[in-house]
Amino acid sequence: KPRSGRPAGGDMRWRSSRADKPPSELAAARNGGHRSLSLSSRLLHTLAGAFLAYCVCIVRDSRACASSAAPSLSTTTAAAARPSAAELASPPLRPFAAFRTASSPPPEQADTAWCSSSPPTTGSELSVKDVAFGILTAKNLVQSRVHAQQLSWLPQARDVVFYSEADLEALQPTVALEPPPKEELVGGGAWKNFPALMDLHKRFPRHAWIFFCDDDTYVYMGNLLAMLGSYHAERDWYIGLYWTPRIDMEWKEVHIAYASGGAGYALSRPMLARLSETMPQCHTRYTRWAGDIRVGKCVNDLGVRVRAEAGFHHEAHDKYEWDNTGGGHPYGHLSHKASAHKRPPITFHHLQPTQLELYYRMQFVRHRRPDGAVEAYDFGEFMLREFSGYSPQLRQHVRLLFGFSVELSGGGPRDAPNWRKDFSDPLYLRRLSADESSGEASFSLVVAKVPNVFDGDGCDVPLADTHRAPARQAADVRLQCTPCASAMVGGHLQPLLGQLCDVQRRDSCTLELVVSLPCPEPQLVKAVVFDLGTAPGAADVVSMGSAACDGRSAVRLRRGVLSQDSPLALHPSVSHGSVDTLPATATADVPGCRALLGGSVELSSGGRLARGRSNLPPLTLACDCDAALVPPSARAAAPQGGSLAAAAAPPLRADGVAGGGGAVGVNLTLTLGLADFTSPTIAVAAACPLVHRAAARLR
C-alpha cells in the first residue's frame, strides 16, 4: 500500500510520519512524558523503540537504513590556493573523479570521494534522473506536437526516447519500430507499445520508473514526481488513469481495466522487469486491440491490476466540469467531472500545440537574478484548484480555477451558484516586484474575456499594463504570499492563507481579485539535458546542467603544461532536444595570465547544441602567462604559508615560449553560457606556460 500523498497546497517534501522518527522520540511518545521510570523499564522501552524503528526501516526501504548508518562521503572542490606547476606536471596524477549516476554502484577502488550519495527511490526526494520517458510519435508530427513539447515540459526530463514507425534524423534519440508479422492494426500504431517498452527496459536498467505517453500529452513534472514518490519503487506498480475498453469494440473480447496510454502511465522497475519476460509473447499474440489495452492485458496476465490515480486526464482541462468533489474512481470516460482538490493535475491529453504552450505559460514564472542565474516559480501544484467566495459589494459569487478561468454567478450569499465562465482566456502569469515592507514577492495572473469577433469586448479604458495589449476586459488576480487581512469564507471575514481575499471592480475593463497562497520557493533552472566531460559522452565536469561535485568542480590535469598545442578538451553532450548557448567566458586568477577558448563554436561563441548521431565537437581550454607581467610572488620556487606556489621561470626561447617547460600554477574559472538556464561555472587547476607577448608582437 502506498504511503499517503502530499496534502493539497503542501510543501513538495513529504511530511514525516510517526514511523520516520528516531527510536528515542518514539520511546518518549510511548512514555507519555514521564521520567520516573525504572532502569529496567527504560531499557525495555529503548529496546522496543529500536526494534520498532528497525521493523519500520525494513518495511519502508532497507537500503535507506543502510545509507543512514553509513558515514557520508566528503565532496572535493577547487583548492583556494594556486597549485604548483611541478605538482600539476609530475606524473602520475590522479584522474578527476568519474561521474556516476545515482543508481550505479561505486567502483571497487575509487580515486577520489564520490560526489553525492544515492538519492532514495521512495519519498519526496525522487528526481528526474530516476524516471525515463518514452514518447510515441510519427514523422508528420515532429514539427508540430513534438516541437511544442520540446518548448514546454520536455526540457525538465533528463532521459527521453521517441518511438516512431521510421527513423527520424531530425529527432534524436528516436527508435524505429516494426509491427509483428500478424498485426491487424498496422496503420494505427497500436503495435508500438511493446517494442518501445522492451527498448526502455534495456536502455535504462537502473531507473526506478518508466513513464510512457503520447506526443500530444502535457506532463506536470513536479506533480508526477510527487505522486510517484509516494510509492515504493521496489514493488510491482502499474499506475495511471483508470480506463476500460469501449463496449462496442474491445470489450467484446477483453474484460479488463487498464491505464490510458494517452494520459500516460508509469511502470516501476520490478514491474517492467517481469513484463519484459512476457512482452515478446504478448506482442505476437495481442494484435487487434488498442496499444494501451494490450499493455494492460499483458500486465493483467501477471496478476497485477492498474493502480488508479487522480491527476491523469484523457482530455484537455476544458472538457471537464471542475469542482471540489470530482476526481473519484472509477474515473476517465466514466465521469465528466474532475477536481484538483485531492491531487493536482499530472497530465492532460489530446492537446493542440498551442495548448501545450498555454499550460507551460500558466505554470511557470521565470526570473533572472542580478547575478545572471535563472530562477523559476512552479505553480503546478495549484493548477485548477478552486478559490471561491461571495462579494457583497458586487452581489456575485466569484470562483477562480487557478491558471485558467474566473467565473461569476449572481444571487444571494446562500444561493447555490450557477457558474458562468466570464473570463476563460488565460494570458499570463508573471512576477511583480517584491513588497517593500514585507520583502515578499507577489504575482499577477491575468485571464481575459473571450472577445466577441464582431462587437469586440467594449474595453475603452487606457491600460498601464502593457502585457494586456491590445486592451481587453480581463480578471487581474493578485497572488500574495502572505495571509489575507480578511478572507471571504462562508460569508464571514477570516484571516487565512490559501483563500480568496478580496474582489473589486477596478474599472470597466478590469475585475481585480486578491488570493493568498503558500507561494512556491524559487528554484534554479538548470539544463538537465546538458553534460560536459573530459571524454565523449562523459559527465565528469558538468552533469545535468550543474558543475560536478555540487558546485565548482576541481579538474586536475593528468598531463603537463596546458598550452594552445595541448589544450584541455571538454566534450559536450545533450541527452535529447537542444540547448541554446551564449559565448563562454574564462578567466585566470594570476595577473598577466589569460585563458584561451577554442574548438566548439556553439560553446565558445554561442549557438545551439543539439542531440545528434555523432559526438559534438569539444570546447578547448588553454592558457598562457606573460613573463613580463606575472608578479614575482607567483613564480616563487618554494611554498610559503602553506600555499602552493609555481616553480621559478626558466629562460625564454626565441619564439616567446618558456624553455624547459616553465609554467605558472593558475586557477582558471570557466563559465559556460546557457541562454535559457543557469550557466554552470567550473574551476580548473592548470599549469600555464610562460611566454613573452611583447617580444612576439615586436617581431
Give a quick precis of the structure:
By secondary structure, the protein is of the alpha+beta class.
Straight-line distance between termini: 79 Å
Q: Radius of gyration, rounded? A: 30 Å
- Figure out the total of helices: 12
**Average pLDDT:** 76
Report on the structure:
With 699 residues, the chain is α+β, with helices and mostly antiparallel strands. 17% of the residues lie in helices and 27% in strands. Strands 28, 31, 32, 33, 34, 35, 36, 37 and 38 form a 9-stranded mixed beta sheet that branches. A 7-stranded mixed beta sheet has the order 3-2-1-4-9-6-10. Helix 2 packs across helix 3 (62-69) and helix 6 (193-203) runs antiparallel to helix 8 (269-285). The radius of gyration is 30 Å and the shape is globular. It starts with 22 loop residues before the first helix and ends with a helix. Residues 1-40, 56-124 and 636-661 have low confidence and may be disordered.
What is the fold's blueprint, element by element?
Blueprint: H1 23-31, H2 39-60, H3 62-69, H4 85-89, E1 131-136, H5 142-150, E2 159-164, E3 174-176, H6 193-203, E4 209-214, E5 218-219, H7 221-228, E6 238-240, E7 242-243, E8 258-259, E9 265-268, H8 269-285, H9 291-301, E10 307-308, E11 321-322, E12 337-338, E13 347-348, H10 353-361, E14 364-368, E15 374-378, E16 386-391, E17 396-401, E18 405-409, E19 420-423, E20 425-431, E21 442-448, E22 474-480, E23 487-489, E24 492-494, E25 500-507, E26 510-516, E27 523-524, E28 530-533, E29 542-543, E30 546-547, E31 554-556, E32 568-574, E33 578-588, E34 593-599, H11 601-604, E35 607-610, E36 619-626, E37 663-674, E38 681-691, H12 693-698
Parallel strand pairs: 1-2, 1-4, 2-3, 6-10, 11-12, 22-26, 31-38, 36-38
Antiparallel strand pairs: 4-9, 5-13, 6-9, 7-8, 14-15, 15-27, 16-17, 17-18, 18-19, 20-21, 21-22, 23-24, 25-26, 28-32, 29-30, 32-36, 33-35, 33-37, 34-36, 37-38
Helix pairs in contact: 1-2, 2-3, 5-10, 6-8, 8-9
